[in-house]
Amino acid sequence: MIELEDIWRTYQLGDTTLHALAGIDETIQDGEHVAIMGPSGSGKSTLLNIIGLLDRPTRGTYRLDGRAVGGLDDDALAAIRRRGIGYVFQSYHLIERLDARGNVELPLILDGVAPRERRGRVEAALEAVGLAERADHRPSELSGGQRQRVAIARATILNPRVILADEPTGNLDSSSGEQVLALLEGFRARGLTLILVTHDPAVARRAERVIILRDGRVVRRMPGREL
Amino acid sequence: MIELEDIWRTYQLGDTTLHALAGIDETIQDGEHVAIMGPSGSGKSTLLNIIGLLDRPTRGTYRLDGRAVGGLDDDALAAIRRRGIGYVFQSYHLIERLDARGNVELPLILDGVAPRERRGRVEAALEAVGLAERADHRPSELSGGQRQRVAIARATILNPRVILADEPTGNLDSSSGEQVLALLEGFRARGLTLILVTHDPAVARRAERVIILRDGRVVRRMPGREL
Ligand SMILES: Nc1ncnc2c1ncn2[C@@H]1O[C@H](COP(=O)(O)OP(=O)(O)OP(=O)(O)O)[C@@H](O)[C@H]1O
Ligand SMILES: Nc1ncnc2c1ncn2[C@@H]1O[C@H](COP(=O)(O)OP(=O)(O)OP(=O)(O)O)[C@@H](O)[C@H]1O
Ligand SMILES: [Mg+2]
Ligand SMILES: [Mg+2]
Description:
2 copies of one chain form a homodimer.
Chain A: E1 2-13, E2 16-28, E3 33-37, H1 44-51, E4 59-64, E5 67-68, H2 74-84, E6 85-88, H3 100-110, H4 115-128, H5 144-156, E7 162-166, H6 174-188, E8 193-197, H7 201-204, E9 209-214, E10 217-223
Parallel strand pairs in A: 3-8, 3-9, 6-7, 7-8
Antiparallel strand pairs in A: 1-2, 1-4, 4-5, 9-10
Helix pairs in contact in A: 3-4, 3-5, 4-5
One magnesium ion (MG) is lined by residues 44-45, 90, 166 of chain A.
């Protein structure tokens, strides 16, 4: 369960104070499928980064499974992230030196999975995003959408309990986008929580609940089908 | 005028030969508004890179304004590019060390424009993409869509005769996307050629002509309104 209580994220630029998030109160239950929408610059990625333990709020409390994470040090946060949270970044953050297979395999290696088991799981993950034939391409040898799909395969390979995806279909044609959404939604059958940031109403409509941000605040909440 | 004659772009990966483009024949007239669509990995960015003189075909002839560019050296290509072609990249390629203002100003500096004139033109360009209040933010201090808009402002500031945009609205909400498309289409009033790669049919529909790629080939051409 994700509980956000009066969350602020403030930046200081010279003598200007910028509130990327300005008082977010939100609870997301286990197994929920939530979409976050809002104008460019409204705070969506910032919110996802805080939920994903990649950033700390300036003010407010974040309880993950009932436990306040604000008091934990970076190593403790990293441990929770590695096992429990899969993150598909808006700008992918793939490792240039590794090919698609190497990028997707990395979480398994860090998790101590044996080589033989790794091989099968990586092949399956690449297959599921339609990249079996690009396994040995490095990010620079892949198209934009192919990099996005590598990021998705990497984020989901440890079967994390929470998947955070920041504009996962932004660079995908409708058919690759459909394949990716079906994959992400398929994980929910195992009780996984899926939180997507998207600009695409067609993607948001598939969520149970849509949260709309504007200027760092939640301005509307609605069921996906009402979009 | 852009004339592509039997254009191939081939990559060698070990003993595999991959054709990113496999025989493209296409002519784009001055002032045309063209959208390029197609599945992830179908060759759209590769085609745009060749049109934009950032890449050379493995085979075939590219005539720009009647002149075959294949014989030109890198300096000559760079000179044509700098003045005549504005490119909005799928992954932006902004300079991290410079803020939004600095990134947008760079083409003007390279073109020898005086400081006083530069200031006004940069302010206007940032205003036009809704980023006047983010002028002193570096790319890492901007949202994904804000970076995309900086890339657009930078690509258009020299009023190039051809604008190439690779998924310019991919990270934008509908209202920022609308603002950007209106800006890009506004340039056409001066006779500029606009070539957009997009996955969004709503964006492609606004073009006069849509070219659909699949596996490195053109498989369909149609008027935008038929989408
Ligand atoms: N350096 C390279 N070496 C080998 N293959 C490459 C290289 N660069 C691109 N490719 C391959 O060429 C094909 C076309 O890539 P391109 O980037 O043009 O696709 P795209 O249509 O822009 O896709 P997207 O919609 O995902 O951005 C892809 O299958 C990609 O894997
Ligand atoms: N390091 C930083 N310093 C100052 N301001 C920042 C910093 N990082 C982000 N911002 C600002 O915080 C605001 C929210 O950014 P965020 O990336 O969360 O937006 P977003 O909703 O994800 O936008 P997009 O849809 O364009 O990706 C933006 O206005 C941005 O300029
Ligand atoms: Mg974002
Ligand atoms: Mg591309």
